[in-house]
Amino acid sequence: MFVERETECWKCGAVIKVYTWEGHELWAKECPEEGRPASVQWRFSQDLGEEYWVNTCSECGIIQGDWFLYLEDLVFADIGTKEEAQGVVPAPGGSVD
Ligand SMILES: [Zn+2]
Fold first, then answer.
1. Angle at 23 between CA 75 and CA 13, to 5 degrees
2. 97 residues of the chain, pLDDT tens digit each
3. Cβ distance 36 to 2 under 8 Å?
4. Could you give phi then psi for residue 81, rounded to 5 degrees?
């Protein structure tokens, strides 16, 4: 099941839909279940230096990195992913607090 939220593309400013799914882990390597929205793509992240399943902007195509969606802008905070993420992921160069 995909959960949809709206956010603003950090690049072009368009209001876009972004998705998370059941069992999602940050920087997911596992292919999301069937019925995947077209904007969730296997893309290379400059910040991460790897490819993962990530949301993209439906307007300009730029990736909406997990770091921003889950930890910075907390787009999915209401469904509990932030707490999970904080236990697992150290912030680059500092704490997530
Ligand atoms: Zn955009």
1. 25
2. 899 999 999 999 999 999 999 889 899 998 887 889 999 999 999 989 999 999 999 999 999 999 999 988 889 887 765 555 555 554 455 444 4
3. yes
4. -75, -25
Distance of alpha carbon 8 from alpha carbon 16, whole angstroms = 6
Instruction: Give distance in angstroms: CA of 64 to centre of ligand 1.
Output: 9
For residue 87, what are the CA distances in angstroms to 25, 67, 71, 96, 97?
Answer: 12, 14, 12, 10, 12
- In angstroms, the CA 95 to CA 56 distance is 26
Compute the distance from residue 6 Cα to the ligand 1 centre, in Å. Answer: 13
Give residue 11 CA to ligand 1 midpoint distance, Å: 5
Instruction: Please tell me the pTM assigned to this model.
Output: 0.79
